[in-house]
Amino acid sequence: MARGARTASQKTSGTKTTEAAIRWPGDQSVAAGKAARVQVPRESHSELSTPRVRDPINLLLGQAESRVPELVPVRHGRMLASPFTYYRGAALPMAADLAWTPSSGLRVQLCGDAHLSNFGAFGSPERRVVFDLNDFDETLPGPFEWDVKRLAASMVVAGRDNGFAPKDRRGVAVATTAAYRTAMRDFSAMPIMEVWYARFDVEEALARLRSALPKKTVRQTQAQLAKARTRDSTQAVAKLTTVVDGRRRIISDPPLIVPIEELAGAFDVEAVYRFIRGLISEYAETLPADRRRLVERFALTGVARKVVGVGSVGTEAWILLMEPEDGLAPLLLQAKEAQRSALSQYAGESHYDNQGERVVSGQRLMQAVGDIFLGWVRSVPPGRGATDYYVRQLRDWKYSAEIETMNPATMTAYGRMCGWTLARAHARTGDRMAIAAYLGKSDAFDRAVSAFAESYADQTETDHGALADAVSSGRVQAQTGV
To answer: What is the model's pTM?
Structure first.
């Protein structure tokens, strides 16, 4: 932990041996949470303390050194578009800042990048539409409030981009944090198995709230569900591939999508494909036996590099076109490079040697339901260093909210969904009773985090301006409009 971070002791007093005096584990957790509250008051989370020498642009340039050189300007260009897009790509600078803020010492599996665009709806293996976290590139154990602060600050930054009044922005941030706090309190009273099975089923929620919602909201939600169901692998195949001379190929759209045949240069393309097929076999070994058998019924026929997201731009991401043995419905997988978590030098290094395994393990811990194809692999091509990847379906009923169209009421409702979901993920992996006891019944933590979120939105706008200045001076290269 960096200098300036204050950590609460979680030690509790010893217990007597008489039955009447036994302190059950839940009692010890509650005591630990209350002790942490004394040492690190909830109000202290309003503080934004930063190091005397602070250069977020230098941190971004340091990240660029491990990324695909020709894609780094695309990343910077996307971050330059607005303070919110900057924020999406600035998990590392924020981790450096969070390390200087008060720490509860109550650790969970962090998402590490829990901004509002990293939540969304997707299909469960039971073919239900669920709402959950959907990005775990930075996942790592750490203080629970780091995720809460990143989420709340993202609401304020996005609210500013959407032109919300200060009162409305505060309302969104408070509602988001309050939803986390109250959900954690509910989870603290549940048996751990109920916590583990808890999920946000969108269709069930709509049916339960239908009578209380405006008819327009119900119609819009139903339309969004219908749209989500169309965003599957079949739709992705239709959009990203074409058939040429009887063979399906991935469509070239440089620099966003580039088939490996266009990247291989003087390399033997068939040798490259043989190498990748070997990697797919290794990846399949990380899946349960039934899923491994399913993957074996597909054959790799196409590979292309794809640019994804904002913060991830520049890391290697590959589309894998897989043809089934029955010839009916091709599958698109995505193999995405996993580098060290942006939190690692501030929250501690992962105990996983393979960064892809780190991502997969964190995702399996935090998500209520997961992708059946989720696994990992390490690539060591001839003449190059090792690169870790995680693999998943490219698309499976995936739907992300349109943040830029939200008004204060819509973002408040969305923030509550995100807050509940984040609490459920943390309750699965941390001491939910201690966290609930720390947060308490009052809105002290909610108001403190809301104040932090406003301060960090100011910092984000300053940092976004610094990036613009760095581009103007030539210190940073940026390619816009891509």
So the answer is: 0.88
Q: What is the pLDDT of residues 337-371, one digit of tens each?
A: 999 999 999 999 999 999 999 999 999 999 988 88
Rounded CA-CA distance 312/314 in Å is: 6
The domain ranges of the chain are: 19-213+404-473, 230-393
Terminal-to-terminal C-alpha distance of the chain: 38
**What gap in Å lies between CA 440 and CA 94, rounded to an integer?**
26
**Could you report the per-residue pLDDT of 269-292, keeping only the tens digit for each?**
888 888 899 999 999 999 999 999
Q: Sign of the C-alpha dihedral, residues 388, 89, 85, 118? A: positive
Peptide bond into 382 cis (omega under 30): no
Residues 6+ apart with CB under 8 A from 413: none
Pairing of strands 247-250, 257-259: unpaired
Kindly write down the DSSP assignment for every residue of 6-58, as one continuous string. -----------SSGGG---HHHHHHHHHHHHHHHS-GGGGG-----SS--HHH
- Candidates 185, 130, 180, 175; CA nearest to 397 is 130
Contacts of 361 (CB under 8 A, 6+ apart): 352
Structure token digits, residue 254: 């440089």
User: Is the Cβ–Cβ distance between 278 and 380 less than 8 Å?
Assistant: no
